[in-house]
From TrEMBL:
PANTHER family tied to this protein: NIPSNAP-RELATED (PTHR21017), PROTEIN NIPSNAP (PTHR21017:SF17)
Domain of life, per lineage: Bacteria
Pfam families listed in its UniProt record: NIPSNAP
UniProt-recorded name of the protein: NIPSNAP domain-containing protein
Family: Belongs to the NipSnap family.
Sequence ranges assigned to domain NIPSNAP in this UniProt record: 3-102
Length: 107
């Protein structure tokens, strides 16, 4: 299992607007292509104006195929301008769980 951790720093005060548009429209488009949403979070304490969402994939090839389908979806392309200007900095990590970690597939 591989986990994609996407972290966005938003414009000051943009979290409510971002969450509204993603919640009403964007998340369903993403879930229809990306599959397993592990979690979607926003900062309350610490780094402010931060969004983190985590997606699980069976392999890097699985991730690549799913991301390509998402990017090819006309609904997603129409949605992107609604959030693009709210995001100031984007960071993406691919993480693999340790054998003893929940989500590793080990029992």
């Amino acid at each position: 299992m591989f986990y994609e951790i996407r972290t966005y720093r938003l414009r000051n005060g943009a979290i409510p607007q971002y969450l509204k548009v993603v919640g009403e429209e964007g998340i369903e488009i993403q879930k229809s292509h990306l599959g397993t949403l592990v979690g979607y979070f926003f900062s309350e304490i610490g780094t402010i104006n931060e969004i983190v969402h985590i997606w699980a994939f069976t392999s890097l090839d699985d991730r690549e195929a799913r991301r390509q389908r998402l990017m090819a979806d006309p609904q997603w392309q129409a949605f992107l301008p609604k959030i693009r200007d709210l995001i100031e900095v984007a960071e993406n990590k691919i993480m693999k769980p340790a054998s003893f970690s929940p989500g590793s597939g080990a029992r």
